[in-house]
Structures are given as structure tokens and as C-alpha cells.
Amino acid sequence: MSQLETGVSLYRDGSLVAQSGPERRSYAAVVQANASEQCHNALYGSWRYFSVWFPPGYTPSWATWPPSSDPSLGFGPGNAITC
To answer: What residues contact 19, with CB distance under 8 A and at least 6 apart?
Structure first.
């Protein structure tokens, strides 16, 4: 890919507690991001995004991504954590 970008957010009991900055890589196959905080007994959730820049002249085989019919896209499942 010409460029990949991702970012993540961490939620504790529904409130934003940490975010990564945008992580961007050029001409790479992988990009990673991390958001963390000190452990609390709580319900944690996450959200992520990604962007892909294709090389000039390349047309992907699929028409649209992500599918707009998925209302939960971007959000990970919540997990109860006990420290």
C-alpha cells in the first residue's frame, strides 16, 4: 500500500480514558497503534479506525469498505476487567 493509517481509543465504563495518536506508515504491509491506562476494575471497550491509500492507478476489487450497514463497525466488544 502507498500508505496505511490507524488509531485506537480506550473507554472505561463508557468514558474515554486514552487514545493513540494517528500511526501512519508509508509503503508498509502493517501499522499498529496502542492506547492504555493503569488497570481499574471496570468495563473496558475500544474503538479503532483505519485508512488505506492505494498506489496511483490501482482500483480495489470491492466497491465500498467498510459496509455502511454495520452500525457497530469500529467498536470492539466490552470486557469486564478485574485487576
So the answer is: 7, 8, 9, 10, 35
